[in-house]
Amino acid sequence: MNSSQINEGNRKREKEMEQNGDTEQTVTPENSTAPASTGSSLRRMTRRQTLTLISSASVNLSSMMCYSILGPFFPTEAVKKGASQTDVGLIFGCYAICNLINSLIMGRYIVQIGAKRMLIVGLFVSSICTIAFGFLDRVPSGPPFIALCLIVRSIDAFGFAAAMTSSFAVTAKIFPDNVATVYGFLEIFTGLGLILGPPVGGWLYQSFGYEVPFMLLGFFLLIMVPFNIYVLPTIDANPSKDSFLKLLTNVKIVLICFVIFTMSAGLGFLDTTLALYAIDKFALSPGYVGLIALGLSLSYCIASPLFGYFTDKYPVIRGWLMVTGGVTTAAGFWLLGPVPFLHIPSQLWLLVLMLSVIGFSLGMSSIPTFPEIIACAYKQGFQEGLSTLGMVSGLFSAVWCLGMFYGPIVGGFITQNLNFEWAAAVQGGLTFLAALLLAVCCFFQRLRQSSPDNESGQGCEHYPLLTSE
């Protein structure tokens, strides 16, 4: 057989493989997911990658809708059932705290539990809790109602933490060269969930009563369980001896966590104060306030995939994207009121514009954080694979939840004792401080890379997310 015949046979086999696609159910230990060239793998996704992306998108959308559905009507219903404003705050706050704790636990033991099993169990638990929450209006008023709300929300936080932690880790494993691009794409569905949750929940509540919104979303989550059993690959991995404490010994990772904290704190602050401020200052109806808030969510949805693409294509700029986004977010908060010492009158168009700026700059800041922490962890010597990805995912979720707990409490306290303008200014100052500290870290890191003593000249930005054998 001559060489031309051999080459022709090879071409036929390659063509058959392309037609069949990659339908393997199991991803074998750690480095078996061979990355394609950056920017090209998403254009040539296998069937399994496509279904995994659809699965993660549906998890983000449904989970965020379930998270945000309570806003329009639950506080009013809770007050009718004998709960005080403090009790309502505790019901919302316990979700963030339990999510924080569970995210760390799930991230640490994702390999022992299994990523696929963790996501499926998390979806199942969250769906049952969502349905159960719809029956709480039948519980006697007073302490029994408040206690059951706290219990159901706490268990729901366990399911949410399991599903989201596993979803992030699996996505990073399946798309090792396009973590930021895929993360940015998935954040579109996160934003859509936050956008659709309140109006859909409010409309269902007004049309059909308290139970129907929770029933429909709960059953939708329940349907996702068999879908993910079929779609998601089983990822075999070896447990790592690394820990969260070792992860937090890296200064840059700590500063990135501070950036994540300020972003979620800002969103939490706006969740609890923006509506009251807009209604009081501009005499708007709740419906118009919801339209104003769309400016933030829509601009975030637009920015996320855009910066995800640039983050993967130019990984060296990840740190400076976070810094630039942080400074821009801080400016947005300072002009949101605006801050009193600027002596700029409050105007509705300025409020809408700054909300859009904040949403866009949050996308600029948040998308590079996840791949940058992964890169820094591998540079620090963490084992490449699911165990590290799980810890990074758990750390990201935990810090985000901490900010969502801090933002409403501190922002509400400052608003109550001073006003919204000063509360927004303080939030902007916190965001600016995080950006400034990260900028100093990136500057000194660049100096070390360019110094003659640094033979490799590589920092976290240049370290590959995963390498193939």
UniProtKB/TrEMBL annotation:
Bilayer disposition of the protein: Multi-pass membrane protein
Transport is among the record's keywords: yes
Biased composition (Basic and acidic residues): 9-18
Record carries keyword Transport: yes
Residue spans of biased composition, Polar residues class: 20-41
One of the Pfam families matching this protein, by short name: MFS_1
UniProt GO molecular function: transmembrane transporter activity
Full protein name: Solute carrier family 18 member B1
Region described as Disordered: 1-43
Domain Major facilitator superfamily (MFS) profile: 52-452
